[in-house]
Amino acid sequence: IWADDKDNVLLRVSYPGPSGKHITLQSNIFDRLPGGHRQLASLSAGGRGEPVSIDTLTERHRVFDSELPGGNMTFLILGIEHILTGYDHLLFLFGLLIIGIGFRDAALIITSFTIAHSITLALATYDLIRLPSNIVEPLIALSIVYVGIENILKKEVRYRWALTFAFGLVHGLGFASVLRDLGIGDRAGDGWMVLLFNLGVELGQLGIACVALPIIWKFLQPRDNFRDISRGLSVLVALLGLYWLIDRTLL
Asked: Tell me, what's the pLDDT at 81?
């Protein structure tokens, strides 16, 4: 048992057992931890590994120690879960879209965000670039504050795709921390896991956009006071981003 440079407490357990038997991993400490806490683990057997996420809803995860059923597809699910519960990433994306842009601009923004965070996700996972989480997390919060304020102050926002790309590079570093915590990137064959995790993030992100954009276009944008609605929502975006920024730097 040891602590890493991110203040994570790590525990390594070796369990020899006959092939074909299952292992049940269970955590009983959630009543002592803050709400929403999640524990990450990586189970390895026979040269293969599978990530495990344990939270208050699923406190038990069972796998076969010989085959680890589900294999790398678990990373696809992990990517979807990460973006759907990554409220800071979702709020950033919402802030970009709430100003009432058309389909072409929305597609350009989402594509820019995808390309940018895919680049840094891969580079950071393989330790080709490294920034400590106490820098990355405040920068993610700052990106939310900036987008909210820009929505409020500017009547017309141009080249938002470029802004999205720049901040998307930072968000990719945040995504990579999940894989690094699971030890992904240390082995030559981890490329598929990174790819599937990233694909899961994209699927979750696309699903959110497919729900949010029709609501904005059909119910909000046609209204005469849409600009006021957009500004009001942008104030909330900026305030939430500011809260996270303070929480991640001063508290």
From this structure: 86
- Select from 135, 142, 133, 116 the least CA-distant residue to 180: 133
What is the torsion angle, in degrees rounded to the nearest 10, for the CA atoms of residue 231, residue 232, residue 234 and residue 235? 120
Do the strands 48-54 and 39-45 form a parallel or antiparallel pair, or are they unpaired? antiparallel
> Phi and psi for 81 in degrees, rounded to 5?
-60, -40
| Separation CA 244–CA 238 (nearest Å) | 10
Non-local CB neighbours of 42 within 8 Å, separated by 6+ positions: 49, 50, 51, 52, 182, 183, 184
Residue 170 CA to residue 121 CA, distance in Å, equals 9
Task: Give the model confidence (pLDDT) of 60-93 as tens digits.
Answer: 554 544 455 455 577 888 899 889 989 999 999 9
The H or E element spanning position 123 is helix 103-125
pLDDT digits (tens, 9 = 90+) for 152-181: 998 787 888 999 999 999 999 999 988 887
Q: Are 27 and 35 in contact (CB under 8 A)?
A: no
- pTM for the full predicted model: 0.79
Q: Which amino acid does the sequence have at 168?
A: G
Spatial separation of the C-alpha atoms in residues 190 and 122, rounded to whole Å: 11
